[in-house]
Amino acid sequence: MPLSLPDGKRLAVDIGVDFDAQCAFNGLMPRLSPAVLSCGDFDVEVGTPRLLALFERYRIPATWCTPGHTLITFPDSIRSVLDHGHEIAAHGAYHESVPSLGEREERRLMELQLGRHEKVVGRRPRGYRSPAWDFSDATLGILEEFGFAWDSSLMGRDFSPYRPRPVVVHREEPNEFGPPSSVLELPVSWYMDDFPALDHVPGALPGLMSTEGVFARWRDNFDYAHENEPGGVVILTVHGLVSGRAHAIMMLERFIRHVRRHDDVWFATLSEIHDRWSD
């Protein structure tokens, strides 16, 4: 079902920032070395200011999916994001590996991160994005329990919001599906994420792709959606520690300019996009 977009608009676009800072690799590494932590320093001191300046130049509102650890470690940066008019969404307590948690621990960390949002941001977030874009069997129910309006972690569509369902998996019988969730899914894609393509984690993530190839991928996804998915949404995910780098932010600005050539595109936060949906 298409979104009910503002008059004259054909397609919604969200540029979401995962503001992981120094906890970005907690789900991957048992110990964060000084070299890894320095990537988080770059995110805070260089990448975030560059992204804020870029978004201000093109008047783009963004959703910053932010772990609780980033909120309490770098509150001045959070105030800067808010002062620029952007949205802060939940993104884990410390960028934990959600599927490895037990349900009790997952619920405890949800309570912890929400408390930090209330303390630093001044209110609870309306939306959630799972660290590393993965759920446990309990996650969807926990999001419903804590009253989230939307999630942006799953990949069951490409250009359309939808209601995710819990699934009981069987190997030799059909899978069982639960009822559609009260939480609206605003889908993501690894293809529309700067991190796996451009970053590099020794022994874990080769990355380091050419920006020409990544730009072509982003452009083609946008062009297809604009031509074929009226009332749809394109969701791009960037990180300050990746897209704040000189070559990557030049590519991001090039993508924004490409999108801006279309007068019927609406840049919006994920909560604004959620509010344009009706079942």
Radius of gyration: 18 Å
- Number of helical segments with 4 or more residues: 10
First-to-last CA distance? 7 Å
State the shape.
globular
β-sheet strand percentage? 5-15%
Structural class: alpha/beta
> What do the pLDDT scores average to?
94
Low-confidence stretches: none
Task: Itemize the secondary structure elements and their pairings.
Blueprint: E1 11-18, H1 34-58, E2 63-66, H2 68-73, H3 75-83, E3 87-90, H4 103-120, E4 127-128, H5 139-145, E5 150-151, E6 167-168, E7 176-177, E8 184-185, H6 194-198, H7 211-228, E9 232-238, H8 240-243, H9 246-260, E10 265-267, H10 270-274
Parallel strand pairs: 1-2, 1-9, 1-10, 2-3, 4-5, 5-8
Antiparallel strand pairs: 6-7
Description:
Pfam families: Polysacc_deac_1 (PF01522). This is Polysaccharide deacetylase. This protein has 279 residues and is of the alpha/beta class. It is 40% helix and 13% strand. The strands form 3 sheets. Strands 1, 2, 3, 9 and 10 form a 5-stranded parallel sheet that branches. Strands 4-5-8 form a 3-stranded parallel sheet. Helix 1 links the parallel strand 1 and strand 2. The longest helix is centred in the first third of the chain and has 25 residues, at 34-58.
